[in-house]
Amino acid sequence: MNNAQQVEGFDQWLDKVSQVCGRFSANRLGPQFEGSIDEYRSGELKMSFVEVAQTQLFRTRHDIEQSAGSHYYAAFQLAGEAVMEQQGRCITLLPGDITLIDSTCPSNFVYRNNARQLSLILPREKVEQQSRYAPVEPAQRIPAAASMAGLAKHLILGATQQRLSLAESEATLDALISLLRPAMGASEVDDSLQERTFRKALRVIDQHIADEALCPQWLATQIGVSVRGLYRVFSRHGLVVAQYVKNRRLDRCAEQLRQMTGEGKLCALAYAWGFNDSSHFSTAFKARFGVSPGEYCKRYVN
Questions:
Q1: Taking residues 184-212, what's their average pLDDT?
Q2: Which homologous superfamily does the CATH classification assign to the domain defined by 193-301?
Q3: In this structure, are residues 130 and 124 in contact, taking their beta carbons and an 8 Å threshold?
Q4: pTM, full prediction
Q5: Which of 25, 59, 241, 280 is most buried (CB neighbours < 10 A)?
Q6: Dist. CA 107–CA 102, nearest whole Å
Q7: H helix or E strand, kind and range, residue 123
Q8: How far is residue 288 from each of residues 54, 70, 110, 249, measured CA to CA in Å?
Q9: What CATH architecture does domain 3-183 belong to?
């Protein structure tokens, strides 16, 4: 498949995602993009099966404003892996894992390898009633080993094999939300010392993302662990510290480029977000988003 066919296939896939799940934006992360989406509806059950590789799928404030509805998604990782970010949290989803996504908040998914996800729409009022109106915390990883994850997965996949009446689909949805309720509150499913350290590291990174001093050695000192311990904490989530910091900076750069209304100095933007070499910035940006910073900016200005 040549590049023109790749671009056309990518655009068609993104259009279908936006039709089924609400408006999203996306970038190809490599030449081997693959993507498909199949919708399933039965009464109150509204879900989609998404297959994708080498793609960043994200939702901006502008995307949210262009979408109707206010709900949650339950994302079931069926194959491959995905890195998901929302509200300052970053998790890595492996096969069997589940997480909740809030459709009213910006979110970011990165799919490096062949991944398959089931995305189920959860009505906000049902979720908040089940959580007794306590704050619902999205972007928490419900690990595959948790009993609730296995039961929820079998329930929703089993429902797709049946012809359910409206009442049966409503009961299935209520049962699924009840299973996920323990993971909806403010207490994390995984509240180990390593997980708390990881969340603290992510907060410090976001607070100092534009500082030139931000590096693994500085970060380890700030959160009170050894550099080796820091690497180990990030490795649990399939991440490399320096790469994560660079990607966060690139994502902030991309966000600013999308908001530009006219000509801007790209080198000044690079320096503002901790890149001290504009050539290195352009190379890194193209590796992450598939186009140069200038081309990326033109897409949104136009």
A1: 75
A2: Homeodomain-like (1.10.10.60)
A3: no
A4: 0.65
A5: 59
A6: 8
A7: strand 115-123
A8: 10, 30, 10, 11
A9: Sandwich (2.60)
